[in-house]
From TrEMBL:
The lineage of its organism: Bacteria, Bacillati, Actinomycetota, Actinomycetes, Micrococcales. InterPro entries: FlgD. Pfam families: FlgD. This is Flagellar hook capping protein. Keywords: Bacterial flagellum biogenesis. It comes from Curtobacterium herbarum. Belongs to the FlgD family.
Length: 146
């Protein structure tokens, strides 16, 4: 016996229509409010009419989703801030003497930073014609004559 119509309400039907109208093909595979609404509508459709869902539980689930979204937003913002800080730090090295340990030879190398590239996830600084990851640079001094 189908339960559709028994548990449906205007709000549930409206929510189901809104969820169905939004395609998720370009969305990431994370739990978002759209997925939550789909789960909630499915839960309401398939619940036992003699034992409906506890509204406190539903509110608790919505609160957890909101908290998760805020944490995700904060993480994204922190990652963007860190990326910007790395870019600024790399740009500030241009024209300065930097030192690093060459991974191949293990020798300490010192030279003037002449360029910066943001093509990789970690910016690279060109030192003596060689691209060096920003996180490998171990020392900075002002180039003589500056």
């Amino acid at each position: 016996m189908p339960l559709d119509g028994i548990t449906g309400s205007v709000d549930t039907a409206t929510a189901a229509a809104a969820v169905a109208a939004n395609p998720t093909s370009s969305r990431s595979q994370t739990m978002d409010s759209e997925v939550f609404m789909k789960l909630l509508v499915t839960q309401l459709r398939n619940q036992d009419p003699s034992s409906p869902m506890d509204t406190n539980q539903m509110i608790s689930q919505q609160t957890q989703l909101a908290m998760m979204e805020q944490i995700t937003n904060q993480t994204t913002t922190a990652n963007e801030d860190f990326s910007l800080q790395m870019r600024m730090a790399a740009a500030n090295l241009v024209g300065k003497q930097v030192s690093y340990t060459d991974a191949a030879s293990g020798a300490a190398v010192t030279g003037t930073a002449t360029a910066v590239s943001y093509a990789k996830s970690v910016p690279t600084v060109t030192v003596n014609g060689k691209e060096v990851d920003l996180d490998v640079i171990s020392g900075i001094t002002t180039a003589s004559g500056s």
